[in-house]
Amino acid sequence: MSDVWLVLGGTLTGAVGPGISVLYATYGELITERAGRINLGIEGSMLMGACFGFIATVETGSVTVGIFAGMIGGGALSLILAYLVIYRNTNQLATGFALTLFGAGITAYAGRSYVDSTIGGLNPISIPFLSEIPKLGSALFEQDILAYTAYALGPLLFWGLHYTRTGLSLKAVGESISVAYAAGRNPYVIQIAAIAIGGALAGLGGAQLSLGFTHTWSEGMTVGRGFVAVGLVIFAMWSPLRAMVGAFLFGGAIGLQLQLQTVGAPVSPFILDMLPYLIIIFVMALWSRASARAMPEGLKGVLKATT
Amino acid sequence: MYNRIRKLPIFTHSHRILIGVFMLMAIVALAACGSDDPTAVPAQPTAVPASSSTDTSGPTTTTATTPSTAELHGGSPDIFLKGFEDAAADSSFRATSKFAAAAKPLAAGEKLKVGFIFVGSQKDLGYNQAAAEGSQYLEKAFPDIEVLRSENIPETADVQAVEEQMIRDGATIIFATSYGYSGPTKAIIEKHPDVMFLHMGDVESFENYSSFFGNIWQLEYAAGQLAGHTSKTGKLGFIAAFPIPQTLLNVNAFHLGAQSVNPDIKTTFVLTSSWCDPAKQATAVQAMVEAGVDVLTQHQDCTKTIVEAAERAGIYVSGYHQDASPAAPNAWLTGAAWNWGPVYSEIVAEIRQGTYKSSVMFQGLDAGWVKLSPFGSFLSDEVKQSILDTVEKLRSGNFQPFTGPITDQDGVIQIADGVVPTDAQLQGTGYLLQGITGRTN
Questions:
Q1: A296 is in which domain, residue-wise?
Q2: Each residue of B199-226: pLDDT tens digit?
Q3: What is the pLDDT of residues B379-438, one digit of tens each?
Q4: Which helix (H) or strand (E) segment is B146 a member of?
Q5: A145 vs chain B: nearest CA distance in angstroms?
Q6: Which residues of B touch A14 (CB under 8 A)?
Q7: I need a surface site. Which of A204, A220, B154, B168 has the fewest CB within 10 A?
Q8: Which fold has domain B217-338+366-437?
Q9: Can you tell me the ipTM of this complex?
Q10: Do A147 and A20 form a contact (C-beta atoms < 8 A)?
Q11: Do A231 and B271 touch (CB under 8 A)?
Q12: Which one, of B246, B244, B245, B226, lies nearest residue B236 by Cα?
């Protein structure tokens, strides 16, 4: 029985720890896709955020500067994508993938002398009373500041998308550029802003990974978490609240597989290693009909054009 | 804009998305599981940099921590052992005339070029840094040697491309420092008979391909003893990447050392399936703390994240590969570290004199190939002395902790009562000892 509790605790702790960075990237990709664009460069944006956030923190000694540097790094990379896909009309999927590789290369180069640097970084802040709740409290409420802002950002984005003029404009552009144009919006400005904000959020996720969760910069340290975020957006059916569920499920699966190993579960660690990805694939297959219906119209055009 | 009630060709779209996402997931899963087949990747000489550590193209953009198939399968101990013995039997003393390029006297002002290839960053506070510092030692020891370095090279055909480039740049001795470089490197040794390839950790040798590795498990035993002294919960943690024989030998030695001072000690063995994934390492530390572990050690390529995370979690940590004590002043106990500088220098000196024999070599404390990292400042002199005594006993060769009976997890006797295992047997370890929680496959 104690093993069950232990595994449960490990899953919860894991859900938040490695989940937060993926959650930010998922938010970012979600905003981009709501505006009718796909950014596969989100992995590169995360790396930019992780790398430049870390470098800025080492150089200035201030984590705040690091966080903003991470956001700027992630946003800058996605602005290249915005220019290419909107003004040069390049293929979105190919461009995004190329930018991921570009981001990986540029961060490997820029960060190579910072691999052994130590930083104070972001440290956990305990919320009084709430952190006393057994298991759940220590998992959710003994986290760094970026985790708390990630909790708040989900409902905030939900409200923003559905109940504000800006959010509605964003969604309108995602559904139909011509309709949004007829309604007096400038669709391209909105899309560029959405791509930039999306990249900045992914950069913030990367910064959380390097400054908050690991206090380390290491080449390619996101290991595909940006692509996981792209999958999670579909999993979440373009809803920020379901994105939280998805990201925590992904993180929880990582925590679960490591905690299961500590209790000597009779399952191969290699099988367990696939768990986070299997869960996402399984749920997406289950929801494929519903998610196809929820997809912004603008994305359908993208995917149609590429096949 | 909300007219989604319209009948849409749902299936075609969802299919396309799903196929795309499945492909992405497959890429991610492949990268994460690292089931990379070296032979499946074509060489791309043009995309590969020569020797600088400042490149951004080609190999550096891929995940650098791909294990070979053998590593994934944990290296079947029998095959491993057999390969080792065969190699030891027929290849230890071969003529070495063919790679004499490095033995030729140099013209005035000319420099002997030695190539070093690393799988990770040279500043990873771990395996690659230890090897990189060894190469710096070599450079200082011989003023007429120029070292070419290339870092973050994956264990695929990429390494061949780097080797070819180094040879074009004039290298006559090449150190392939990562375990998984063995396959790709062996594929090109016949093409370059006058170049000497030195691999770290392989179990076979050829005329111009030699292999060596250090018995670092001896220090894991000593570090385990210190962990046994320090632990209050009686639970130790070992975070590893893949269950390769080297790793299994290390965790067994660590556990055996701890058991020698606390017979009831338990060790938890967790695999991250990556040589360097900081986020997973940090999650593994959380899982260990959750499980009540209060002394951690590891077998990862980059060690910094775990050492620092242990410090923040308020538990103790024992290092690996490299001294990382400044990163954790309150948590650092000691560590097992490499001492490659003198090893490299000795090998290069012998090659230049023409006396070097291609071989498979394992050396430990007695030859000075491994060293104990500094102790944590908070440890008592008494405990420190007892650990130093153990190290001295191991160095003298009179003490072999793996003397039977050695029983594995399933209660099977792996080394019979009173039997002293050979180095080859130990390097083929394929089991975990009794008292260790974890799996080898």
A1: 2-113+140-306
A2: 998 888 888 899 988 889 999 999 999 9
A3: 999 999 999 999 999 988 888 899 888 889 888 888 888 888 888 788 888 899 999 998
A4: strand B145-150
A5: 16
A6: 283, 286-287
A7: B168
A8: Rossmann fold (3.40.50)
A9: 0.90
A10: yes
A11: no
A12: B226
